[in-house]
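Fold it.
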Amino acid sequence: MPHGKIRKWIRRCLLVVIAVCLLLIVRSIQLSSEQEKEQERLREMIGQEQGEEQTSKDGAVVSSGAVDPSGAAVSAAPQEPAVLGKYASLYEKNSNLAGWLSIPGMVIDYPVMQCEDDEYYLHRDFNRKKSRYGCLYVRGMADVNTPGTNFIIYGHNMKDGKMFGDLDLYEQKSFYRRHPKVFFDTLYEERTYEIISVFRSRVYNTDDDVFKYYQFYEAQTKKEFENFYKNIKKLSLYDTGVEAEFGDTFLTLSTCAYHVENGRFAVVAKRVTE
């Protein structure tokens, strides 16, 4: 083949490669923008519910009990916990909603999902549509609404920083100092946590006799609690100065990391009362 034709063939191939790369970049930007718009709609729904709830409280008198025909007060029957007003519309839209996670000053400000299929929200958004971003989620075995020792929220480490894509900023102690608190609301109550440990780990083989943070949910004994606590402190990249004792409860944020095969990055926070 003459050199001129070879150069033309190479040039055409390069143009095709460049065009495909540009299309992939444009599509990636489009998906990122669509995902952010959807999350913003969810946040707006919360804001609207908060406004309506406040208006109701300010403009209406709420009775604390019923009254029988004779005028005597009747004690209200015990009721199931009510979903926080700001999440009522979201819960009605998707009953797999387990709560909402946010860290002020970070991208992390998302709903947290839970269903029987632990893999479902890895690749589906809040509206159950397929999405490479997925959702933040807790496994089906995690009991979010009772005072268990620890529950773990999982999320993708996205290259554009969304979901848990910027969680590894906590590798720097200076960043931690600016963002020491995590806020997680269940459907029924608002919770505040202080970060106690930041560390790298990995998913181990089933028969590996090592500390596996992702298997710890409930400490039945003080010894089990101390085993978890001592290990997360030992693994921590730095000392946050936050301490815990038997009876405290934890929130663990977990995402993929690439320092080793099947690597993980975790941030553990202790619940506090404000």
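The chain is about 30% helix and 20% strand.
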